[in-house]
Known about the structure:
The complex is a heterodimer of chains A (about 750) and B (about 150).
Chain A: H1 25-32, H2 43-49, H3 60-63, E1 64-66, E2 72-76, H4 85-97, E3 104-108, H5 129-156, E4 163-166, E5 169-172, E6 177-180, H6 181-189, H7 217-221, E7 237-243, E8 249-254, H8 257-261, E9 266-272, E10 275-280, H9 283-292, E11 295-299, H10 313-322, E12 328-333, H11 336-341, E13 345-353, E14 365-370, E15 376-379, H12 385-396, E16 403-406, H13 426-436, E17 440-443, H14 446-452, E18 459-467, E19 473-482, H15 485-490, H16 499-502, E20 514-521, H17 536-553, H18 558-565, H19 570-582, E21 591-592, E22 598-606, E23 612-622, E24 625-636, H20 643-662, E25 668-669, E26 672-673, E27 691-696, H21 714-726
Parallel strand pairs in A: 2-3, 7-17, 15-16, 19-20, 24-27
Antiparallel strand pairs in A: 1-2, 4-5, 5-6, 7-10, 8-11, 9-10, 12-20, 13-18, 14-15, 14-17, 18-19, 21-22, 22-23, 23-24, 25-26
Helix pairs in contact in A: 4-5, 5-6, 17-21, 20-21
Chain B: E1 2-5, E2 8-11, H1 20-27, E3 46-49, E4 52-55, E5 68-70, H2 79-90, H3 100-113, H4 119-125, H5 135-147
Parallel strand pairs in B: 1-5
Antiparallel strand pairs in B: 1-2, 3-4, 3-5
Amino acid sequence: MNDMTPIASEIMTSENGKPFKLSRRGFLGASLGALVLGVTLPTGRARAQAAASVTPGTRVAAFLEIRPDSTVLFRSAFIEGGQGIFTAMAQIVGEELDVDPANFVVEGAPPGPDYLLTGGGRFTGGSMSVRMSYDAMRKLGASARHMLLRAAAARLSVPVAELSTEPGRVVHSASGRAIPYGEIADAAAGLPLPTEVVLRDRADFRWIGKPVKRLDVRDKSTGKAQYTIDLKVDGMLFAAVQHSPLLGGEPGVLQNEAEVRGMPGVHSIHRLPGAVAAVANSWWRARMAVEALQVTWTEAAGTAHAMPADFSTEAHMAKLKATTGDGLAFETEGDAQSALASAARVVEATYDAPYLAHGQLEPPSALARWNDDGSLELWIPNQAPEMFQAEAAKLAGIAPGKVIIHSPMLGGFFGRHFLYQTANPFPQAIQLAKAVDRPVKLIWSREEEFLRDTLRPMAAVRFRAGLDASGMPVALSAVAVGEGPTGRWFGRQPDKVDGSAVEGIAGKVYAIPNRRIGQIHVDDPAIIGFWRSVGHSMNDFFYETFFDEMADAGQQDPYELRHRLLADSPRHRTLLETVAELSGGWRRGPFTAEDGTRRARGVAMASPFGSEVATIAEVSLQQGEIIVHDVWVAIDPGSIVNPAIIDAQVNSAVALGLSSALLEEVVYVDGVPQARNFDGYSILTPDRMPRVHVRIVESGAPMGGIGEPGLPGVPPAIANAVSVLAGKRVRSLPLSKLDLKGVDG
Amino acid sequence: MELTINGTKHQVDIEPETPLLWVLRDELGMTGTRYGCGLAQCGACTVIVDGQATRSCVTPVESVAGSEIMTIEAITEDSVGQKVVEAWVSNQVPQCGYCQSGQVMAATALLKQSPQPTDEDIAAAMVNLCRCGTYNAIAAAVRQAAQA
Lengths: 745, 148
């Protein structure tokens, strides 16, 4: 499954293994720029370069500035939001450039053609960053090193062949001379890009594949890291908003406007599409003012996805479950219908999962400044700078080249920072900055965020499995009902299934000879979006828990059945065996642990974002509460860049997967979400965090993703274990809805 | 009103009920203390007031006039804080990092009060939310800082 990656489907196969020819045009760009420019942001230059035809990821000057002290400023095509991408970029580029990653300073690149590394576009998401750019970034580092070698050769009047590099410097061993990179960076910048480069042998890697320390950890441990919400520019005012409770409402009468204008620090009150805003000299004053406004909301005609006043999640789920039929086929193998008809036994079940909120801890914000030259400068949390630039230009009525985008560190990623229109504060910030003729930093309160966040879609899936007389599955049919986020945001073709609605039900690896995975599209009334691991976040739960149901019906152990159905798939079978071994050997339970609690284990597999994952969870029930003690994860991303970051990302994915499985559910009644803060929307607390054990398997398969793949196996592994202890199947999330009193161990 | 923050006195002219968080961030430009929920649910805004971990988003500024307020900006000037930071770096705790100022402040307050905390003490004190789920790394870092 390629998940949320319609813009990036082709890139993986484009350059692997082929000699790398660099455009000669790149040479002009490089010579106009410089390898040494101090710390000036080259926004203007990047825009000027846009006119030329550019091969993304090739022009050294667009990415690298080697400073006089031989440290490297690197502009990353990918945005850092905790997934460790800045460090990974420094490792990959540093390996070939021959600079210790610790000597890199990495920042998010401005919009520009050089950075379109995700299938001709640019997008941080879909666990794509490293696997999409790995080859290009290695070659970029190698190109820069080659230019430095030639500059050194000229300086020392020796042939390039006599030179080598050590981290941060060129060495002429015959004469014992060495030149730090910083001293020749300027001269190197004037040289053409090499047409071919030789990459370092994998066996000689110093930093790729090693647990290199993250570059941002000290700043993040001392409060020095800056997020959009922390930024300040001269003359800036602060803004807060109150949205229409129902999406689609417009502000009518503001009954106490005059009174609110007189509140302390208030600069002005504004009407915006679907919201009112207060601008003040501090955010707290702006918030106090805007929340004091008594607004009459009127219904506006023609708002896309206007929220019906009678919408409820309960009624929508009932509608999904009541929608019958087989839908459009997405994946078929053999003849599922006939095989089901002739099966010795048929197992049927319907599964469902709720809406989820992102709950990233940095509330959304946007800082907008209109400059004297007519340009618009935006500091915005985002995962697609060019898309935000184009949208901002449209809203502002200026050319995209007049919009300067800064992409600060993100205070939580999770899919929240895509271009979601009604869920992005920057359109409001642009309008407010124009209206007050001053820079404006707009922050949404947590309550406004819960009102306008995009949601992981809800869905229901109907499964039917056919077993033969020995209990082996011979047929499986699944029909997913709902809407996928990829179709919502990239355009849905009515005659095709949106892959994001079925990924994790389709694309499974078990050898069941007759299969049909279908989907019925039902418009989702809410604003749905991408949420860490997208469709996999629920679909692997549906499939892998139904798998255990199927195993139980056929009187098979769920681990052994998986193992048998992977007989012809050595990569997956190895992974399954690896996670079993990591957990001390498979045992389902129930069994009594050393502390006397009655426990069980569940297993699940998933194939998300190009990686393969096997997960086992150990669970007990205490006073009606589900306690998850240990989670073991074996992950095979093919090959890796940083095992420590992978371990951290798997820990993080386990936490979020567990949080969603146990606790999370966005509930709408009468068109509005019932929870508006973390007091009503529970997320995982420290006391519920299990031990997490990670084993990385490098099978050598094409490189897969890391940020998301650890998640999808967690909910089903837990639910499968809970089912053993509770003595009943779990078919709906979150598990907090289960009544488990009286089944304690 | 006069506030003592990180050993320095600041004069602020502000509505007395304003939360300390917004005085720090918007009046004094100390943005290392973070807004997450505004309801004392998440702890991203944790500072230390007279030795106690305190959620500044629900702390009226007038209630801390005359108190010793310590924020993340001074963390490495404090001997316990410095140990905590080194343990955070050593354990590579942060991911997105947004909650980590509050986590570091909560850990520092704990170790100032209980230099040798038990696992139960750590569990009781380290209750701030982290959406990246760095909880195991946080607990390991607190244990390491206690031994440093």
